[in-house]
Design a protein that fits this description.
This protein has 111 residues and is α+β, with helices and mostly antiparallel strands. The protein has helices at 19-24, 66-80, 101-104; strands spanning 6-8, 16-17, 27-28, 36-42, 45-54, 59-60. It is built from three helices and six strands, in the order ββαββββαα. The strands form two sheets. Strands 1-4-5-2 form a four-stranded mixed β-sheet. It has a two-stranded antiparallel ribbon with strand order 3-6.
């Protein structure tokens, strides 16, 4: 049993928000602890769980620095390069394939 209060979907009190709701407001949790839990029921599966944070303790999102933006661009560019053929695929290669579509499915392009 959890020591956190648990609220049903759409029944959380005012003043609490999920991480995504904070981000939409330009805020971040800022190191505060989780104060409650939100549960969304699903059929035949465990409920979806979201953690709630206090809005009044949230801090503004840190601005993107030029160095951080450059690092993000390099990381995204690396995800586009196929490890098999070494070409830029033009899209982010899915981890489930691990390579570009022509390398993963070589016989489909010959049709």
């Amino acid at each position: 049993m959890s020591a956190l209060p648990v609220y049903r979907w759409r029944l959380a009190p005012e003043g609490l928000a999920t991480f995504r709701q904070l981000r939409a407001r330009g805020l971040r949790p800022g190191g505060q602890p989780v104060v409650a839990q939100l549960e969304r029921p699903r059929r035949r599966r465990d409920p979806l769980i979201a953690f709630l944070y206090r809005i009044d303790l949230a801090r503004p999102v840190r601005p993107m620095t030029p160095a951080k933006r450059a690092a993000l661009e390099r990381a995204n560019a690396a995800r586009r390069v196929c490890p098999e053929c070494g070409r830029d695929a033009g899209y982010r290669i899915p981890p489930s394939l691990g390579m570009c579509a022509p390398c993963a499915y070589p016989d489909t392009s010959a049709a």
